[in-house]
Specification:
Layout lengths: L6 E6 L9 E5 L2 E7 L5 E5 L13 E3 L2 E3 L6 E2 L5 E3 L17 E4 L2 E5 L35 H7 L1 H16 L20
Bound molecules: FE2/S2 (inorganic) cluster.
Length: 189
Amino acid sequence: MFLKNCWYVGAWDHELIDGKLLSRVLLNEHVLLYRAESGKVVAMNDRCPHRGALLSQGRIEGDAVRCMYHGIKFDCTGKCVQIPGQDMIPPKMRVRTYPVHEIGHLVWIWVGDPAKADISKIVNLPYMTDRNWKGLPGYLHYDASYLLISRISPSCTRIRSAARKSTRTSRNRCPSTRTSAVTRWSAGI
Ligand code: FES
């Protein structure tokens, strides 16, 4: 189960260059991300509504994407705009799209109710664009449940330490006392 009405990071901005179609599984949803010719970032469900082929195996045409199985084309709003060999386009023929917002080299995506997608709720990360900070864009891949990941992050460790201290003064209990072995690898360290 996931919290859907939240902004999540879907990609780094540099991953959407050169007309690349990026396929991601986010909150158990197959999502296609791409930068349209207009520069706008598009996020849509990565399944063609015709026969379920992956749209990420298709190609970008301007701001639209074409499914390469039977050639149906969808614009950046998910609306079907062309069916080869057929003039009539069923109005319900469309792909679900998701609100996205690009800021600080990150592409944020909202998988929940689009009406609640408020970009003012995106976490402010000023160091992502501050020239006084140097960063290395990348990923830390964990071969573990996401529930465990929040327990091993350094900031959360501090929170948990505080929680443990508070158990001495209050009768609240720390949610878990299990320990986990974790190996962390970084280039040059
Ligand atoms: S499956 Fe995409 S056009 Fe047929």
